[in-house]
Design brief:
Elements lengths: L2 H9 L19 H13 L6 E10 L18 E9 L4 E6 L14 H16 L6 E5 L6 H9 L2 E6 L20 E6 L2 E9 L2 E7 L7 E12 L4 E12 H9 L2 H11 L9 H28 L14 H22 L7 H12 L6 H9 L9 E8 L13 E5 L8 H9 L4
């Protein structure tokens, strides 16, 4: 497809009937598309026991009243999307931030905490037997009430917290050593304050770790050796908490989904905001398909030897295969309309179209009027490429023509077409 053809399709791209827009729904242009993608993502996947909620960014440089200044994402300013992902990087459900359909207070919580409950309720609605999963989030969604509400839904919760969202009684003395911590248990929730540096404390809220214990992990660090003037890797034992260790390992699930979506994207430069949402939905659907394919491949080849394993497709190969299968239907239609496979009925259609054009070559019109009941399989059709004439090909001075016989699949000049097929008879 050429650039002009792509721009022409993109110009008339619409996802909804604008005549039915009442002006009350800010997402009316892409409402049906977002709902369809959400339903299909939830219907085709069973999430794992490790989940994460975070923001995804849809970059947009145009003008929109809900556009936000975003400095913590690579794509820059645009729209924020709250997404629920599992350990494989599969986007199970998502909400647009300025969507008015989910902006409601659930169980008396604020909007940021209601997002978590709304996404979890969607998960439990499609998977009623889902229990005892672990959900990780950052300090934007942290509160004691939210942790208790998730625990009542049989979902364990672990997140970092802000200073104003933990009890003031949970404190450490100023002269407390590094790596010291204190925890407070309230019903089913544990609140932890951990001193990681002399002047920095980390606050965490968890229902998945009771009690919170100290552990050590091996971490590789690069050290510069002055003697050899090279860097050497040194393995050190580092102090940490079990809740902090699990949080660091599982909090980046939404970032993994963003990373997969950023490898091969269909995003194009545009000033229409619904085009950005269309490309986001297209990329999300393709990435979810690839994640599902890899998960199925790993389950199918588990326990097999390397020789018996079927070769897995890379992300690039999977996208090429996806595009080929998507265009397979249109290619079949193009082959059926080729010059070599036109039937007599198609020749009649072409004949009617050619006769309706006033500036037909006189030699062609004479053939159509005199021999209109004969040789219906042979009709002069217009082609895009120039070919050599099949009647005067022996003449070196013969020029090429764009007229093609539908029955012979051979190029002919208009006057040569008449002589070739009729032998010059009237």
């Amino acid at each position: 497809m050429g650039l002009i053809r792509f721009q022409q399709i993109l110009r008339y791209l619409h996802c909804a009937d604008n005549s039915k827009d009442s002006g009350e729904d800010d997402l009316f242009k892409v409402r049906d598309l977002l709902s369809m993608l959400n339903r299909n993502c939830q219907r085709m996947w069973t999430p794992s026991c490790i989940l994460a909620i975070d923001e995804m960014d849809i970059g947009f440089r145009g003008k929109h009243k809900h556009k936000q200044r975003i400095t913590f994402k690579k794509t820059g300013d645009g729209f924020l999307v709250f997404a629920l992902c599992d350990s494989a990087g599969y986007v199970f459900a998502f909400f647009v931030k300025f969507d008015t359909q989910w902006c409601r207070n659930i169980e008396g919580l604020c909007a940021s905490h209601s997002v978590v409950l709304a996404l979890v309720d969607i998960l439990l609605e499609h998977n009623p037997l889902y229990k005892y999963g672990e959900l990780y989030a950052d300090n934007f969604y942290s509160s004691y009430e939210l942790a208790e509400a998730l625990f009542r839904r049989n979902i364990f919760y672990c997140c970092t917290a802000r200073k104003g969202r933990v009890p003031r009684t949970l404190s450490l003395p100023d002269d407390a050593p590094v790596n010291s911590f204190v925890q407070l248990h309230r019903q089913n929730t544990t609140v932890v304050r951990w001193r990681v540096k002399p002047s920095k404390d980390v606050l965490m809220i968890t229902t998945a770790h009771r009690p919170v214990t100290a552990t050590t992990k091996t971490k590789r660090r690069a050290r510069f050796n002055d003697a050899s003037q090279t860097y050497e890797y040194v393995y050190e034992q580092e102090f940490t908490l079990n809740c902090a260790n699990d949080y660091n390992m599982n909090m980046n699930l939404v970032d993994i989904a963003d990373q997969i979506r950023g490898y091969f994207t269909t995003r194009r430069r545009t000033r229409k905001w619904w085009h950005r949402f269309f490309f986001f939905c297209l990329d999300t659907a393709a990435c979810n398909s690839y994640v599902a394919y890899k998960t199925y491949w790993e389950a199918e080849n588990e326990g097999k030897e390397n020789e018996d394993k079927r070769k897995v497709l890379t992300h690039r190969q999977f996208n090429h295969r996806l595009a080929e299968e998507y265009n397979s239907g249109s290619r079949k239609r193009q082959r059926s309309l080729s010059m070599t496979s036109r039937s007599a009925s198609m020749a009649k259609v072409w004949k009617a179209r050619r006769l309706s054009i006033p500036d037909v070559h006189p030699e062609v019109k004479r053939y159509l009027t005199v021999h209109r009941l004969k040789h219906l399989d042979h009709y002069p059709g217009g082609g895009r490429q120039q070919r050599k004439c099949g009647y005067c090909i022996k003449d070196r001075n013969s020029s090429k023509t764009t007229y093609i016989c539908t029955g012979c699949d051979t190029g002919f000049h208009p006057e040569c077409f008449f002589h070739y097929h009729t032998g010059g008879e009237e």
